[in-house]
Amino acid sequence: MHEQTLPSWPLDCPYCDAHIELVVDTSQGSHETWEDCPQCCAPIHYRIEVDAVTEDIVSVAAGDDDEVM
């Protein structure tokens, strides 16, 4: 899948409050992942919910690395 065609989800870093556009590969289905904030480099825990039929992003929850989601 080409990055230009991947959907993104706007959110704010739970550490530094920087605005982030998270690019999501919806072909993975619903999943959890960790990525570093591009501003402060802190690890962000993402829980991404994807519709199994349409592959649309349903929701994205972001928390700090220690937060249980």
Radius of gyration using CA atoms only: 12 Å
| Strand residues, percent | over 45%
Unreliable sequence segments: none
Name the shape in a single word. Answer: globular
- Our measurement of the CA-to-CA distance between the termini, rounded to an integer number of angstroms, reads 28 Å
Helix content: under 10%
Could you spell the SSE succession in H and E letters? EEEEE
Mean pLDDT: 90
Structural class: mainly beta
State the helix count: 0
| Total domains | 1
Sheet with the most strands: spatial strand order: 3-4-5
Largest sheet: 3 strands, antiparallel
The quaternary state of the protein chains shown equals: single chain
DSSP E strands, number: 5
List the helices and strands and how they pair.
Blueprint: E1 8-12, E2 19-23, E3 31-36, E4 43-50, E5 57-64
Antiparallel strand pairs: 1-2, 3-4, 4-5
InterPro entries: zinc_ribbon_bacterial
Protein name: CPXCG motif-containing cysteine-rich protein
Structural account:
With 69 residues, the chain is an all-beta fold. The chain has one domain (3-64). The protein is 0% helix and 46% strand. It has no helices and 5 strands. The strands form 2 sheets. A 3-stranded antiparallel beta sheet has the order 3-4-5, with no helix packed on it. β4 and β5 (57-64) form a beta hairpin. The protein is globular, with a radius of gyration of 12 Å. The mean pLDDT is 90.
Keywords for this structure?
globular; 5 strands; mainly beta; two-stranded antiparallel ribbon; 69 residues; three-stranded antiparallel β-sheet
